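SAMPLE LOG
Freezer: B-3
Tube label: C17
Construct: single chain, 304 aa
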Amino acid sequence: MTRLGVVVVVVGLAGCTKLNSAFDERASETGSGDEWTGDGDGDPSTGDGDTDPSTGDGDGDPSTGDGDGDPSTGDGDGDPSTGDGDGDGDGDGMMCGDGEQLCGGECTDTNKDEANCGDCGEPCDPDQACNDGFCMRPRIMFVTQDTFLGVLGGLSGADDLCQEIGSEFYPEKQFWAWNSTIIESPNSTFEKDGFFVRTNGSKIAESWADLTSGELLVPVNYNEEGVVVLNGAPCDFESQVWTGTDAYGDAVGPNCSNWTKGSSFYSGTYGLLYATDSTWSQAPDECGEPVRCSNERRLYCLER
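STRUCTURE (predicted):
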């Protein structure tokens, strides 16, 4: 077999070796040779081809790099040669974590920071703490190390006991007893501001509404010294706390005749110091005998 030879003849056209000068001008303006479409590829990562470095890709999308030359806006593309390079698009050159805000050049948790509570430059008062972005007073609540008969000297006597015990460790604070009579209760007499903490600093409740919701974050089982009181069985007197109060802050009976009787002929209502459900303040009587006021139990004390 033999191969066929193919002859290609190239014909040059004379007089067509130079482009019109008008096309040269338009090409220099757009960088692509097309005055209507830029580079015409639709890809914002390659630039619009107009030779203007102040416009970048020209798509106006700050998440892809707008190249506007303004370092206060950043471009959010993570390229340190353009914008701030941190990818968050704020122009500060620093990326803060979730829940943080840049305050004074530092990443700050404005939910907890007492100098920047809720927002930068919003400080709390000296007696307040930043709780979930709000300046609030932390209020201490503890269970007493000592135990007492049901005869407490009335409600005022119970308050006096809490004040005497609490002031030994917190002399600048005042305390109430979490006890009720037929006419007075925490809901009717206590201040309801702030959030509530144990003496070890753990948060019991975010607010009064949470404290009286029937569910606590942690049990009220730390004493006035900041030491945990060991749990016993539900029917052990050491685990029981005189209250006469339900978990919603209202009075319930019995209450040792308004905390004036310590006889076995009278009974009272108690809570369980290790509980976080409603039994922390009002436990059911499941121990097989009346809750006699002649048995000693602890008290809950709450900062006023």
